[in-house]
């Protein structure tokens, strides 16, 4: 994944992480991949002043059903992207297409039958995408 993100950056492609996971974890991954934290869309945890867990921030689009699609719509409007490609391993990733223009199913960590069967393009290793970038 690190090589794929690096090659995309070399081509001037902006890369975003859109996750139903928690911001603090996803931002750590983004830093490892040289993706700006401003390009991370994930759920935020809330805590009371005494440090007790208070829930999650319901104002984040990824906290609700269809949230990943809302993020894609926002990115297209904000940056005027002509094409947005979504890569993911779950049904909520696949559901974000549309508004994403293309969805690539990924089964490198876990193969989800529904995603594998419905994705027009399904990969199990990012080398497959790197080869496409070379052509």
UniProtKB/TrEMBL annotation:
The annotated pathway is: Amino-acid biosynthesis; L-serine biosynthesis; L-serine from 3-phospho-D-glycerate: step 3/3
Which GO CC terms are listed, alphabetically?
cytoplasm
Q: Cofactors per UniProt? A: Mg(2+)
Residue ranges of coiled coil: none
Top class in the EC scheme: hydrolase
Q: Which Pfam families match?
A: Hydrolase
Keywords (alphabetical) are:
Amino-acid biosynthesis, Hydrolase, Magnesium, Metal-binding, Serine biosynthesis
User: NCBIfam families recorded for this chain?
Assistant: HAD-SF-IB
Q: What is this protein called?
A: Phosphoserine phosphatase
Give the organism, scientific name: Baryphthengus martii (Rufous motmot)
